[in-house]
Amino acid sequence: MKKATGTTSRSYTDRTLKLLWGRAAGRCVVPTCRIELYVDETEYDPIVLIGDIAHIHSHGDTGPRALPELSDKQRNDYENLILLCKNCHARLDGQQNTNTVEVIRQLKHDHEAWVRTSLPERGKSRVGWYAVVIEDQWPIDSLTFDAALSPDYIVSGPERINTSLGEGGWPDLAHKVQTRLAAVLSGGDTFEKRIAVFPLARVTACLYAGYVLTNRPNVRLFQYQRDERTWVWPTEAIMPSNLSVSTEGSGTPEHILFAFELSASVNVQPLLSNLPSTTVVRIATDSPATRWLQHPDQLRELGRLSRSAFESALELSSPSTVWHILYAGPAPGAVMVGQQLNPTMTPKTQLYEYAHPNHVPSLVLCDPV
Length: 369
Description:
Blueprint: H1 14-23, E1 38-39, E2 48-49, E3 51-55, H2 72-75, E4 81-85, H3 86-94, H4 101-118, E5 128-135, H5 145-149, E6 153-162, H6 169-185, E7 195-200, H7 203-213, E8 219-221, E9 243-248, E10 255-261, H8 269-272, E11 278-285, H9 296-316, E12 322-328, H10 331-339, E13 349-355, E14 358-365
Parallel strand pairs: 5-6, 5-7, 7-8, 10-11, 10-12, 12-13
Antiparallel strand pairs: 1-2, 3-4, 9-11, 13-14
Helix pairs in contact: 6-7, 7-10, 9-10
């Protein structure tokens, strides 16, 4: 419960303190300072801490960058804290117009990236990734992103793409995804840039994000492990679930329907009744289940089979053939499938979103019109 104005408590969990001091290496985060925030013990005196645990949004309702609606827990969480020396603390709080929330968060992020790459005792690699989050109405917790990428690190981001549908519908959502990913890909050789994608959103947005990213070699996809509440892939080695491709139909169809059955079966019958001359291509696992995806090798196999299925379908397609993609599976799998669609060769492609009890049309890709 929120306390009276200006009287919120400062209480930090052991985990928060370890993350805060460890990721900052016990130094002030301001790049022109970076002083160690402790004085070593002497023969006569103990170690003395000379730094401050500062709040990005004030710990009170009326302090610097205050956000009154935050709970005590949110105010004292790692995401809202930053390590500063007393001088930098006073300057950042005293010059609030210059030191906005965004500026301070970037200081914290940049310093932690510097720690990872500049202090060899950390044992980290020097490979940096641009983090992209594809989320729905509920923000994704980024706390385990670093562990998921370890020993590599996040050099920029996370760039958050909210996929909630607004008044503009699917076209506006596609524009948002396109714009945000273009910003991530801008600057330098886009095919050399390393992009880590953490998706937990509607299928159409994930398919489209993969379509925009294309089949770049330096994209890593991560699956949220709900039971463990982490983005870290399970460490135990497992054999990927068997995937197979089957085709129903022959000749040169007017429509080709791709049904991806990874977490559940797909009922294509409601669509077939309205689509004349349709070939159905199923990419399925032996036993569809929500826990199907447990290893990145499964994503690579899904990408390989999807690409092969799309290439075979191109041989069957005429200029007027329309593709349809119905996907039932995990979010990173949808990104992987979208990456296999070739923007210069794929015909008009209708994507679908599941709305009980059937799939309904959402976004159109590769439409020559």
